[in-house]
Amino acid sequence: MQPTETVLDPTLPTELDWRSKNVLNKPKDQQQCGSCWAFSTVGTIESRWAIKTGKLLSLSEQELVDCDTSDGGCDGGLMDNAFTWLESNKLESESDYPYTATGGSCSYKEGKGLVSTSGFKDLDHTENALITELQNGPVAVAVAAND
The domain that contains 83 carries what CATH number? Predict the structure, then answer.
């Protein structure tokens, strides 16, 4: 089966670098914990929050690993589940709920939560949809690393 060729919308920009806009934290290390889903979710929220408020926060991936029971902690998860969980819960700062790279019991501290979500959307699986949404800020992306 031949891959289909994508025709990019010529009205979309060919370059965009959010690093130059001070809305991205430095890369974080998930270590040997399968928590990429939490890092993808939190990184997107950090950046979207910075775009909205002008304040770049470092938020807790560990809180999602420990507290989001729809996902599997260090055994994997889905960003959609994490975003849904964050519609009724708030992320603490990374300094208040530090990353341990292991699953644990939820130790959320009432009053320490800083940021939640009001929703999310899944994009069509096209380059045009991705490029269009990137105009609003960084996005959470999952890559299937198998067949």
Answer: 3.90.70.10
